[in-house]
Design a protein that fits this description.
Strand content: 25-35%
Helix content: 25-40%
Distance between the termini: 60 Å
Number of strands: 33
Number of helices: 20
Structural class: alpha+beta
CATH architecture of the largest domain: 2-Layer Sandwich
CATH class of the largest domain: Alpha Beta
CATH topology of the largest domain: Aldehyde Oxidoreductase, domain 4
Largest sheet: 7 strands, mixed
Radius of gyration: 27 Å
Strand order of the largest sheet: 5-8-3-17-14-15-16
CATH superfamily of the largest domain: Aldehyde oxidase/xanthine dehydrogenase, molybdopterin binding domain
């Protein structure tokens, strides 16, 4: 491998003669035909013999105590097999574990919820649950449960919740084995200081301070959360559920229910989207498990669309920034206060640590400080969403960078080129102790190529339609990135990241691939199969990913942090390499050539110096079996990823702003990405386009609206929660930087979350470029545009 230096970083270049057979090309994704025909099976499609159906009774109050609950009428209803309530001692006494790995040790584990709650903390909180022979009977039974509440004071806004004397959402929570009092509803503080920030501000020629607030975006997948639990004779459970990590489900259920992990088997089932919604144990899962154990029968618990919207979504953040710069654009000091509005329950962590790491990684600066913390409110519990803290801080930072550039009379692209992260710099991938060194960075290439494609040099506001002079067009840009996994150069004390894979060769030359990472439908499993095919020298269609569960697959953390291709792909490549060593050992005996002189390509094993001398992979495997050298060539791997390299995405956006109606219409988006070597280019492009859809929605239309009286969600449906449809989408152009990541499988990095992180910021900057109105809250509504224009007298 030849090492060359490029502007922005150090990157290995393959020799000219090195060609890939599989990776870098496009193939149909696995089960794609079954998916488009509607024949692919999700958890919601499944049914087991004698299966019952579960439903949850929810609180009508934002904050209250359940004083009395009577279930006699519900229990007498024909078809009802079990009723559980928050008063049941085994439920009231056990705290839920909702995530593993983010807080790796029990000492730092945060727990604040039960399967059902005696003290309810948001409209929709869980009070009781029913298992019955049909969904209709279960719903009828809920209506027969009598509950007497004592209403308590509630806090709905994070700023109000922090004030002295505000009602406490939680009087105590558990961190490890110790009780913690969230004074002023604050928890999970993350203070970080690098260098001397005060001195850095003294060195600055100009200091900028801004406050921005993000919005209530939801994951908004099509599929609903579903769990099926089947009780086993050994007192355990067999589980099929919506999850981003089958081992996360196994571990969390075991801890939450007091069942040994070896008695819980969790199957990997395809997800109908996720975007972070299922990274944590969903509340449905332990409730479904308890109902199954109580009845001795399988139970299916499927949420409704309304229930789906009253949990999850992107964290709302209040972000205060202070940045010092020299006249030439050099950044001397950066400060961020990050207030995370977390809702009624924490999932086991907040996004503050993540946002802190991403903020420190945005731009080169010797002096940085972050003060972050989370705040409880009596509103729906938040989970994670694509980017987890990164889009929030990116919106604030990239808005301010444009403000700084304007005051310095400097091109915003040049200001970013001057200060962006580059090769050799420190990257904090998932917080202050998840640290790697940047080894590949295509930012300069992305900015220059993107600027050329969008016509950046002509970015002054224009009138695109001569017959509609009130419509103004503007161009904006933003720079972003995300981590490729949660591994650190040195293992983190907080974040867990390792993967396992098994590659088993069949005598016909095909290979079975066993990996436990969740299948989103994004192409991640297909990309990993391509990596295995390339390593083994066989065809893409020769690799067969198999159905797995926690009994059959090696441990895999979770599908999050854009880690599938980098982390799981790395383990799969190692497993394939180990299988190939067995094949080479057999082939060396057959060909009378040392194994280190052999190569695998085009389904053949051949001598490097004499390609005509060789045999097919199938012949090697069949002959080895007949010679009784070994029955099966297999390779395994269970390994921690070597790093968490950033993948970079630069976004340019063109928008039209109607100055009469205030409507903003995105016209064109240019997404340039440094993902290292794209394994399946079509899958990468799909991620980049999907990132545009979610990022533009975050900026313009997507907002869960809370009733100011009790905090309940008033638009929990797809009629009133406004997703961008196909007719709303702008034209999207994508391109890749010519880069390879030396620590990644065949030079690959991630892409999933970076695709959306900078999009909203670019939209905001484009709107300002068009009409001179800078908006500091999400989303951009027509009312905000018109108010801004009125303030300017336009």
């Amino acid at each position: 491998m030849v090492i060359t230096k490029r502007e922005g970083g150090i990157v290995p270049e393959p020799p000219e003669e090195e060609k890939f057979n599989v990776i870098g090309k496009d193939y149909p994704r696995f089960e794609v035909e079954d998916r488009v025909r509607g024949e692919y099976q999700y958890v919601g499609d499944m049914s087991l013999p004698n299966m019952l159906h579960g439903k949850i009774l929810r609180s009508p109050y934002a904050h209250a105590m359940v004083k009395r609950i009577n279930t006699e009428k519900a229990e007498r209803l024909p078809g009802v097999k079990a009723v559980i309530t928050c008063k049941d001692k085994d439920i009231a006494d056990r705290l839920l574990l909702r995530i593993i790995g983010i807080h790796r040790t029990k000492k730092t584990r945060l727990q604040d919820s039960h399967a059902l709650e005696e003290e309810v903390r948001y409209v929709g909180d869980r009070v009781a649950a029913v298992a019955a022979t049909s969904v209709e009977i279960a719903e009828e039974a809920l209506g027969l449960i009598e509950v007497e509440y004592e209403e308590l004071p509630a806090v709905l806004d994070p700023i109000e919740a922090m004030k002295p004397g505000a009602a406490l959402v939680h009087k105590k929570i558990m961190i490890g084995d110790k009780e913690f009092e969230p004074k002023n509803n604050k928890f999970d503080p993350v203070p970080v200081n690098i260098g001397d920030v005060d001195e850095g501000f003294k060195q600055a020629d100009m200091v900028f301070e801004n406050e921005l607030r993000t919005g209530h975006q939801h994951n908004a997948m099509v599929a609903l959360p579903v769990c099926i639990c089947k009780p086993l004779r050994n007192g355990g459970l067999e589980v099929w559920n919506s999850t981003q990590g089958i081992f996360v489900t196994q571990w969390c259920l075991a801890d939450s229910l007091g069942i040994p992990m070896n008695k819980i088997k969790v199957h990997r089932v395809a997800l109908g989207g996720g975007f972070g919604y299922y990274i944590y144990q969903h509340f449905n899962d332990p409730i479904c498990a308890i109902l199954a154990l109580r009845t001795g029968l399988p139970v299916k618990l499927e949420g409704t669309r309304k229930e789906f919207f009253i949990e999850g979504g992107r964290h709302v953040a209040i972000i205060r920034l202070k940045t010092g710069v020299k006249k030439d654009g050099t950044i001397t000091a950066r400060y961020m206060q990050f207030i995370d509005a977390h809702g009624a329950y924490a999932s086991g962590s907040s996004i503050v640590r993540l946002a802190c790491g991403f903020f420190m990684s945005m731009y080169r600066c010797p002096n940085m400080r972050v003060d972050g913390f989370s705040v409880y409110t009596n509103t729906r519990p938040i989970s994670c969403m694509r980017g987890a803290g990164n889009p929030e801080q990116n919106f604030a930072v990239e808005s301010q960078i444009d403000i700084i550039a304007e005051q310095l009379n400097m091109d915003p692209a040049e200001l970013r080129l001057k200060n962006h992260l580059r090769g050799g710099d420190t990257f904090w991938g998932q917080g202050p102790d998840v640290v790697s060194t940047v080894k590949s960075c295509g930012v300069p290439q992305l900015i220059k190529e993107g600027a050329k494609r969008v016509g950046w040099e002509n970015r002054k506001a224009t009138i695109p339609y001569k017959d509609c002079p009130w419509i103004k067009r503007g161009i904006g840009m933003a720079y972003g990135f995300h981590t490729s996994g949660g591994a650190s150069d040195k293992p983190s004390a907080v974040v867990l990241d390792y993967s396992g894979a098994i590659v088993k060769m069949n005598t016909d030359g095909t290979a079975n691939l066993t990996i436990a990472c969740a299948d989103y439908g994004t192409g991640n499993v297909s990309a990993i199969a391509a990596i295995v095919a390339e390593e083994l020298g066989i065809r893409y269609e020769d690799v067969i990913p198999i159905a797995v569960n926690t009994d059959s697959a090696p441990f895999e953390y979770s599908t999050h942090a854009s880690r599938s291709v980098y982390s799981v792909g790395g383990a799969a490549k190692t497993a394939a390499h180990n299988a190939k060593k067995v094949i080479f050992d057999w082939a060396s005996r057959m060909l009378s050539v040392p194994a280190d002189q052999l190569e695998a390509r085009d389904r053949r094993i051949y001598v490097k110096t004499k390609p005509s001398k060789g045999m097919s992979v199938r012949e090697v495997l069949e002959n080895a079996q007949s010679q009784v050298w070994g029955g099966t060539a297999m390779g395994t791997a269970s390994q921690r990823a070597p790093a968490c390299p950033p993948h970079f995405v630069i976004t340019f956006v063109e928008v039209d702003v109607d100055t009469i109606t205030g409507r903003v219409r995105p016209v064109r988006v240019i997404q340039g990405a440094d993902v290292g070597k794209p394994i399946l280019p079509s899958a990468v492009r799909g991620q980049l386009i999907g990132g545009v859809q979610q990022g533009v929605g975050y900026a313009l239309t997507e907002e869960l609206i809370y009733d100011p009286k009790d905090g309940h969600v008033v638009n929990p449906n797809f009629r009133e929660y406004k997703l961008l449809g196909s007719m709303d989408m702008p034209k999207v152009e994508t391109f890749f930087a010519d880069m390879q990541e030396p620590t990644g499988p065949f030079g690959a990095k991630g892409v999933g979350e970076g695709a959306t992180n900078a999009v909203a910021s670019a939209v905001y900057n484009a709107v300002y470029n068009a009409v001179g109105v800078r908006i500091f809250t999400m989303p951009i509504t027509p009312e905000k545009i018109l108010q801004g224009l009125r303030r300017q007298g336009k």
